[in-house]
Amino acid sequence: MARPPMPPGTWGHIKRTQVSPGRWYADGRCRAENGRTRRMRRYTPEGVVDKTGAAAERVLIAALRSACESTGDLDGTTTIDELWAAYRVGLVDAGRAPRTLIRYDEVAKFISAQLGGWRLHEVSTQMLETFLRSVAEVNGAGNAKTTRSVLSGMFSMATRLGVVKTNPVRDTKPPTSLKKKPTRALEPEQLAKLLTDLRESTIPCPAVGKGGVPLPSKYRVPTVAEYCASVDLVDVITMFAATGVRTSELIGMTWPNLDLQTKTITLSEKATRVPGVGLALVSRDDDPKNTHRTLALPDFAVTMLRARKLAMPPNAHQVLFPSSAGTIRDADALNVQWRRVRAALGLDWVTGHTFRRTVASLLDESKVGARITADQLGHASPSMTMDKYMSRGKVRPEVAAILDRAVRQTASTADEQQGLAE
């Protein structure tokens, strides 16, 4: 008669084997809650003198218990690489955006390089915090934050499935940047001058390398105006200034969504790179960075678009700002072009996001509510608009005037009361 299988969640006989004096390994088999049976081996921990193999057995029992508590295909002996593979399948099934998957794949390389072989029952908060600190030092705080987010999602799934009891990422210290750049926006005069310089500036505009350093050229270097005209940058920056939209939203704008009569444009798609497809226009209702909305356009943008519609040949995707080949414009190529212009004009700090902050600050200065500004920028929360995009720390003469009036009024009232008392 065949031996009956072990009940799920249990393990069998443990065998101890001596490797050398004071060092043993323990073998055993367990059957997890998913019905799978597996053999496991653990050695005496480093630095421990194990006379009988009891220390090795204790380590094995802890691993067996962790493996048996699993309620799915994952268990305590699953490696972090295996957990990432399972987690990514869940991301795809959940319909996460292609750009999100690409970004997560990038940080998964950091995780795999340093932690990929560790098993889940071996992972601690201290280990993960040390790892995140090294990512921040080598790859920057931004990559460390995204890495922590990915790890947290992975272990959240493992916790939900009962593979681990708690999420070890939860108590790690969030990575922070040592140097926080202050929120900065263009002043109205600076914005007007920039738009003029893009059309008229005769300042040389050489190609730049790392750090914005001009690269030598044996050919004649074009002026800012000549270069902007050659790469179709003037209208793009004008539209940034007119709307404050994200780069992916701007290069995803299409002619069918533009209404020059009502002076509005509807944002329903964004340009993104899809694995296996290339650049494509994507529309997702659940994408927080592609909020579907209709924006009113200022007159200077309408004038530019009217002229552009007459002069520009049609393209297959019907986008407003295609590449020179008539295809969807690449955001990375656009950033390279703008980096060259801003270096020539001495505006290295002006990025695509600067125009978003500029629009937010101009609306704030005009006493437009934060909710309206959030709608313009496509933010789900007005508080984020106020915290991240509106200029702070400005000199506020109106505050001094309010305080001055209050003090003068209080002093005048006190003098009147003293006069009546006398």
From TrEMBL:
Looking up PROSITE patterns in the UniProt record yields:
TYR_RECOMBINASE
Per the database record, which ranges form the Tyr recombinase domain?
Answer: 181-404
Could you tell me which InterPro entries the record lists for this protein? DNA_brk_join_enz, Integrase-like_cat_sf, Integrase_catalytic, Integrase_recombinase_N, Tyrosine_recombinase_XerCD
What are the alphabetically sorted keywords of the record? DNA recombination, DNA-binding
Q: Report the superkingdom from the record.
A: Bacteria
Protein name (database record): Site-specific integrase
